[in-house]
Amino acid sequence: MLAPVILAASRSDKMRRLVSAAPGTKQVVDRFIAGETVDQVVPIVEDAVGKGLEVTLDVVGEDITTVEQSHAARDAYLELIDRLKDLGFGEKAEMSVKLSMFGQALEGGHELALANVRPVVEAAAAIGTTVTLDAEDHTTLDSMFAIHEELRKDFPQTGCVIQAYLFRTEDDARRLAENGSRVRIVKGAYKEPVEVAYQDKAEIDKAYVRILKILMNGKGYPMIGSHDPRLIAITQELARRAGRKLDEYEFQMLYGIRSEEHLRLAAEGHRMRVYTAYGTDWYGYFMRRLAEKPANLLFFGRSILTKG
Questions:
Q1: What is the mean pLDDT of residues 286-291?
Q2: Catalytic-role residue among 134, 152, 182, 289
Q3: For the whole model, what pTM was predicted?
Q4: CB 3.0-4.6 Å disulfide test: which of 99, 167, 192, 242 passes with 104?
């Protein structure tokens, strides 16, 4: 299994330098990263919305080490919101944030992350959109869920993410579904120990479906983060059984992956949101994309060979 090796490499400074210097890296990074600046990503947002898609925007760069960097992350999102205000897309263009980028892992990190993310959520609400808190490794989740609960007191549309491969997630899904939360479900893209997470793909898929049933039958708004055709078909059937209309749940897929499927689902009347990452500190995000699917790694390898 290459995925655990790649995920371990995502935390290695040495590997970061090697990958960044590889001749074919930029070609592959450009497939998954929409640009480095707000100016570069805005036309991509406009193009997606013009095609009937929606987007969630992620400013990459969760591996921070100082309070000043956490403030810079906050300010980067506030700059993004200021540009989205001019576009007037409302909830068609929301944001996803990683609380580690807002200082969660620093001393006093829980309070720091909450203080940094609140103005972002407030500014998003002011332009008619919202923010989703991304899930990271399992050690961060209690803090993330507590911040999510706190933000929802004033901004109930604030979303969060749950990961099917974690043993805890079915209980988390029940609580969130009962609370009426916006919830994105993904399989999971971090290296987790056997004590807390399923390791077998088939077990993860089974857990994903169990959690989908909980969300579809709950009071919240499910956001299905998957490129798997089988899980997409299961989602549609579970939504039909639960009596959900097409605007009462949505699909989410990554920028640069299965783009034709994005358009197909939107053409069928589904809400289809594209997770669109941008920024200069792309390494951790990029490596998790490689780990998720062997084809991505093969594509990267071919690019290095052809550019070397």
A1: 65
A2: 134
A3: 0.86
A4: 99
